[in-house]
Amino acid sequence: xxxxxxxxxxxxxxxxxxxxxxxxxxxxxxxxxxxxxxxxxxxxxxxxxxxxxxxxxxxxxxxxxxxxxxxxxxxxxxxxxxxxxxxxxxxxxxxxxxxxxxxxxxxxxxxxxxxxxxxxxxxxxxxxxxxxxxxxxxxxxxxxxxxxxxxxxxxxxxxxxxxxxxxxxxxxxxxxxxxxxxxxxxxxxxxxxxxxxxxxxxxxxxxxxxxxxxxxxxxxxxxxxxxxxxxxxxxxxxxxxxxxxxxxxxxxxxxxxxx
Length: 259
Known about the structure:
Elements: H1 6-17, H2 26-63, H3 68-84, H4 89-103, H5 118-129, E1 236-237, E2 257-258
Parallel strand pairs: 1-2
Helix pairs in contact: 1-2, 2-3, 3-4, 3-5, 4-5
């Protein structure tokens, strides 16, 4: 089906509305009115989309600034774009994720943890607070981050560093946390149903009352400080899965299936 531009729709509508050699029928007048309205609506949408593109371009430019305040302004501009334009939200989410990988990267080395700048903290807050956001925090240094009681369902966090992070009561269902460092993380009461934690490290993590039902724990270091009341029903494990020295299935609500 062909598409008419805003100007074409408007002109056609006016042509039908304005009498030529005789009076127009009611149906033609009605159709003409519809075309005028459609042309106006399309013109408004095209103008709005053009404004969104320009706003996005300026915001991205600000993200590359050497000045923290300018970067913060760019982040807030992106946040507002996501609020104003539903179709732009995924692009905004991906842009903020890329910004975090640029400003707070995790490459697998183990340098001393640095204090995150206000721009990094703001970017993280914007990304995780919006329901349904497309969250990809892969390869990001999030050591000690406070993500407690957040809904991060379906987030992708591959090969990141969440050592010492606060994830108390956080919803991590269906998350991809493969090869992520979770050493010493506070995961008390966290929900990790059907999450993938393949080759992740949870050594020293607190998993009291955590729900890992149907989680993929193949090759995972599960030498957690505390697994009391952790639920491991249906979890997938293999010979590469490491457990605390005193671990026995009887100590947890578990039904483990090796794969």
